[in-house]
Amino acid sequence: MDTVGIGFFFEDLPLGKKFKTIGRTITETDIINFCNCTGNTEVLFTNLEFLANESDLKGRPVLGPLSYCIAEGLLVQATMQYTGFAFLNMELNIETPVMAGDTIHVEVEVIESRRSKSRPNRGLVRTRNKIAKQDGQVAIVYTPLRMIKCKATA
Which of 4, 64, 8 has the alpha carbon at shortest distance from 35? Predict the structure, then answer.
């Protein structure tokens, strides 16, 4: 019997492959829960008076790490179940803020794909992940390098 929901294997991720995830709207509740879970009580995210009177931002900003974590969740659900073995490193740049009520999705392009030298049944895949908002504006760009299971060991 086939199992649905298994992620991409190394062979499914050649250089240049592109795809995108479904979207997810980030809510006020997400912001509050993330602040409480992580202990990040920066006034920019927890004090509405500060936002109204001191901040240059208009509206309720989403923490960059929260946007990134939700993006990773969207990717894990669809692309890495049973096949993603290690997150090795990344660079991350925030281009513009995500605000409560924004719906984000991830646009992915494979920019590096090679077999592991030390593990013949694994590949190393680096992607350029663009977290985009509902209007198409790119909020965050990050480039994770992951170890991915191969279909074959040769």
Answer: 64
